[in-house]
Amino acid sequence: MPISVEIGADSVSRETTQGSHVPAGMIRVPGGAFRMGSEGGSDAERPVHLVDVDEFYLDASLVSNGDFARFVNETGYLTSAELRSGKESATWRTYNTDSRRDHPVILVSWFDAVAYTRWCGKFLPAEAQWEKAARGGIADGVYPWGTGGPTADVTNWMRVGEKGNAPPTVPVTQCEPNALGLHDMAGNVWQWCADWYGEDYYSNSETHNPRGPLSGQYRVRRGGAWNVREAFRLRCANRGAMAPESSWPNVGFRCAWAAGTSSVGNGDI
Fold first, then answer.
1. What is the pLDDT of residue 2?
2. 3-state SS class at 213
3. Do strands 49-53 and 32-36 pair parallel, antiparallel, or not at all (unpaired)?
4. Residue 192 lies inside a defined structural domain of this protein
5. What are the pLDDT digits (tens) for 243-258?
6. Structure pTM?
7. Residue 43 and residue 202: Cα distance in Å, rounded?
8. Phi/psi-derived region of residue 212, left when phi > 0, alpha when psi is between -120 and 50, beta in every other case
C-alpha cells in the first residue's frame, strides 16, 4: 500500500516495505523489558520505569548525505529549510559535497525525516525504542558504550563549528558501535524520534510500546551532537526536544523498521 506525506507544497509517495524482508543495513533490537529513564538525570528522565518493547530493527548508522541525496533525486523533495530559506541560507545541500557523502545529513526537520522514512518504507523510532537500542543490552550502562566517559573512538563531541565552514561531523561509521552494532547512538548529530515530547510523560507512560503524548509543541530528539560539551547529554537516558519544523546543523536522524509496520508513535503529520 503506498503511503504519502504532505509537507508544505511537497508530496512524496512510495510503496512501503511490508512483509518479513529486513532492509539492508539494519540491526535487530531484541524485544523485551528494560528500565527506561534515570534517577540521576533531569526531572524529565524520572521516574525510572519498566518498559516492554517489541522486537524491531534500527539503521546501523545515521542517514547520510548520500542516502538523502538518493531520496531527493528520485522524488524532487524540498526540505523545510529549502522551502523557507533565502538564497544565502544554508540547507542540507550546502554540505552535500563529494568529501561528505558519508557524513550524516543535517539541516533536516522532523517533517523531512518522516518523509524520508516513509519513502523507504521505514519509520522514525519511538523514544522508547531509541533508548532501548542505545543501551545495547547493557542494563546498567550510562552511555551506549557502557559506564566509562566519552572518548574520541566511541563518539564525536566537544567540537567547535566555525562560521562559513562545514559543521565538524564525521562519517557515520567512523566511531565504534555499541554492543548491538549501532554507530553514533551518542554524538555526531542529535536524532529525531517519532514522539511528541512531554516533560512529565514518564509519570503516566504506557508500559508496552509507549508512543508518547497524543499532542505537543515539540518532538523528541535524542543522542547528543558534535557540539555537545557536557557528557551528561550523551547518556542513553538524556532527553531533548525541538520544534518539528526546525532545522539545525547538529540534527539528523536514523530509521527503524518492523515487519508489517509502516509507522510507530503518535507521529502523524
1. 32
2. coil
3. antiparallel
4. yes
5. 999 999 999 999 999 9
6. 0.91
7. 10
8. left
